[in-house]
Structures are given as C-alpha cells and as structure tokens.
C-alpha cells in the first residue's frame, strides 16, 4: 500500500462503528491486522438510559423512534477507557468511523464554543449534556414523517422527480423529512439550533473539537443533496425549512480529512497532536468501502439491525425504490442500495419466541430443517417496513398463540395488525423449475424449526 512504509514504526489506526445498539472500536497496525477491539452495548452497559435495542419508542406517536443523544457521547468515552489498557493512543496516526445512517443531532446555539473548549480534566458527557436544542435524536427506524415526505415530493414535482434530484424518493427515516417535522412541530427547537449533524459527522465533531462537515455519501441519505452536483439542493432546502443551509454547513468528500484530533483527547488520552481524524461516513457506504467493492455489478449483503443489499454502479439512475449514493471511495462513481428495516431485532424476536431465547437452539433448528424449508415461507414485520412499505407490530396475542411485544386496547387495531404482523405460507412444487405451477396456501402456524429457518431465508 502506497505510503504505508513512511509511517512511524508501530503506527496504529483506530476505527469506530456507531450503530443502533452499540458503539464498537477496532484497532489496526501497519500491516492492517487487528490488534485490539472493544464494544459498548447501550442497553447493558449504559442501563440508566433505559433503552431497548438502543432506542426509545414513543407510545403516543406511532412510528416515532429515537435515541438519547448524550448516550452516544458517554459511550465514546467509556469505549476509549476500555481501550486504554490495550493500546498506546500516542501511536494512533488516524481515526475514522461509521455511523448509523439518517440519524440527526441538533446542536444548540453557542455549542461550537463549548465543543472547542472542553476541559480534559472532566468527562465528556457532563460538559456536553446541555449542548443540544433537543435531547433526543431521530434515527433511521423512525417512520413518523409520512406527511413531511409527501410535502417534499410535491414541492419538486413528485416522488420520481425527488429521486432524480436527490437519489431517493422521500423516505420517512431520511433526515430531510425529520428536520421538517421538527421545524413544524417544535419551531423553538429548530430556531435554537446552530448546526445539524448526522450521527457520522456528530462523532467526528467531538473528535476534532469543532463542527465536522457532513460527507457527500452520508449526506445523500437526507433527501437534501443534489446527487449529481454533490451540493445541497436549494429547491429541497427551501421546501424543508427556512435557513437550513446555514445549519447544515458545507459538504465534504467521504475520504477527506476532518481535521486533527482535539486537544481534549491529546491531554486526557495521550493521543498524538498530529493524529488525523478522517471524515466519518454512513455504516452502509463504509461497509461497501471495507469490502472493496470496486466493479459495477459487485454486490454485497449486510445483515444487521437493518438488512441491506448494496453494490457499485457507474451511473446514477434513481428510481422509486432503493437509493443511489455517491461512491465513498470513487469520486465519479455511485453506490446503489436496498434497505429492509426488519433485520436482527426481528430475527431475535423469532429466536426468543421459538428457540428458547438461545442462538444455540436457533442454530440447532436450522440444522434440522431441509433446504427450501419444505415450501414454508414467512413474512415478519415487527416494525413498519421500508421495502415494501408496510405497517408492522404484532399486538396482543397472535393467531399462533404467542405473546407479542406490543399491547393495544383497541380491538380494531388488534385485528388490523394481526393481518400484517406475521404471515406464513406453504408453497407447493417449490422445487419446480417454473413458477407457473406453484400453489400457495396460508398456514396458521409453523413448527419452531421451520419458523427459525424461514426467517433466516428471508
């Protein structure tokens, strides 16, 4: 690798992953071998926030899902403390990271001054706890902004026109609709906001002690950026909220440097003052970069809190489904992606109900089940699904007799949600080479091994 030999002996590279349920760190040496790693699980290691899966669910606003912003700050410092015995921070020559996409942070007016003058003798979270105009950050799981999505689409001539302009039609989890909702429902919060960061640029901002730019790739997941020009679209900005461009700041390439690490980390953790902080980006774009996808047609599948399929393309051809983002490492290229919300949390729900809350039992069921699962297929929507756009949540007692996660006293809601929460089908002649002869019929229940297996197939 060019330039690697010119680095000081023993140089280290520190990478973070700020995800929905945890904050992780991985340290590489000069040979790009892993020398240390650590993780902070939000639910178990920061229990005072009382999150479930790293999030809060608003019982009064269907689909409103968010996380406490300051929890991410406390997690960063705890993670660095856990790494202290394992590595010499002064050997770290560069730091970067990935953040869950679409989540947003709202810095209060005057917070730039706070961020640039952190006291290294004190912990981070007490110094930053009052730095936000709202204490909660909307995240990618939120689906409460359908009204705002339609408003943005209408402002530019429809969903397809918005997709052509920004790379995606309006999606509830995207940051633009989230910002518009805050502007409409909490105008005082919006007015008091000095800077809006994504999760990725938020974490980079803490590390450099100043507002870091949103990078072009993660910025494409906001419905606010012109996908071809890689600049903020004034048309969409004006349709979202007044004065928004000043609150977003400038965009930057995903591979550029955000700055040198802040004095706070030099003095508190003994980082070298010349340590570079490289722009953070979204978790999916960084996965694409880390897997070294580099040829149009290359595809990868990521199974996480959400499940995604992404790949490389030379041209931006947005449609009404899926997303187009700038390629994070190839300046003239693009990446395409499909995202499914009901990923690991829904799999864990099936494990808990059907496999004694044990992955060992879960795996044993998988081994017992033949390929194609005897024609049994199932569709599970614990949360409102992104693709296809369907409501979720199984409420009360399902038709299979298993207790569900959410309770609701409204009979009409219970009847409706049972219809969309879980569906199970038997498909006959699944081995047939042609789909013409397939016969499907709905079933009321599966045996546990089949239930586990079909969820893994999906």
UniProtKB/TrEMBL annotation:
<keyword id="KW-0119">Carbohydrate metabolism</keyword>
<dbReference type="GO" id="GO:0004856">
    <property type="term" value="F:D-xylulokinase activity"/>
</dbReference>
<dbReference type="InterPro" id="IPR018485">
    <property type="entry name" value="FGGY_C"/>
</dbReference>
<keyword id="KW-0067">ATP-binding</keyword>
<dbReference type="Pfam" id="PF00370">
    <property type="entry name" value="FGGY_N"/>
</dbReference>
<keyword id="KW-0418">Kinase</keyword>
<dbReference type="InterPro" id="IPR043129">
    <property type="entry name" value="ATPase_NBD"/>
</dbReference>
<comment type="similarity">
    <text>Belongs to the FGGY kinase family.</text>
</comment>
<protein>
    <recommendedName>
        <fullName>Xylulose kinase</fullName>
        <ecNumber>2.7.1.17</ecNumber>
    </recommendedName>
</protein>
<comment type="function">
    <text>Mediates 1-deoxy-D-xylulose (DX) phosphorylation in the cytoplasm prior to the translocation of 1-deoxy-D-xylulose 5-phosphate into plastids. Can also phosphorylate D-xylulose (Xyl). Uses preferentially ATP as cosubstrate.</text>
</comment>
<dbReference type="InterPro" id="IPR042024">
    <property type="entry name" value="D-XK_euk"/>
</dbReference>
<dbReference type="Pfam" id="PF02782">
    <property type="entry name" value="FGGY_C"/>
</dbReference>
<feature type="domain" description="Carbohydrate kinase FGGY C-terminal">
    <location>
        <begin position="299"/>
        <end position="386"/>
    </location>
</feature>
<dbReference type="GO" id="GO:0005524">
    <property type="term" value="F:ATP binding"/>
</dbReference>
<keyword id="KW-0547">Nucleotide-binding</keyword>
<feature type="domain" description="Carbohydrate kinase FGGY N-terminal">
    <location>
        <begin position="139"/>
        <end position="288"/>
    </location>
</feature>
<dbReference type="GO" id="GO:0042732">
    <property type="term" value="P:D-xylose metabolic process"/>
</dbReference>
<keyword id="KW-0808">Transferase</keyword>
<dbReference type="InterPro" id="IPR018484">
    <property type="entry name" value="FGGY_N"/>
</dbReference>
<keyword id="KW-0859">Xylose metabolism</keyword>
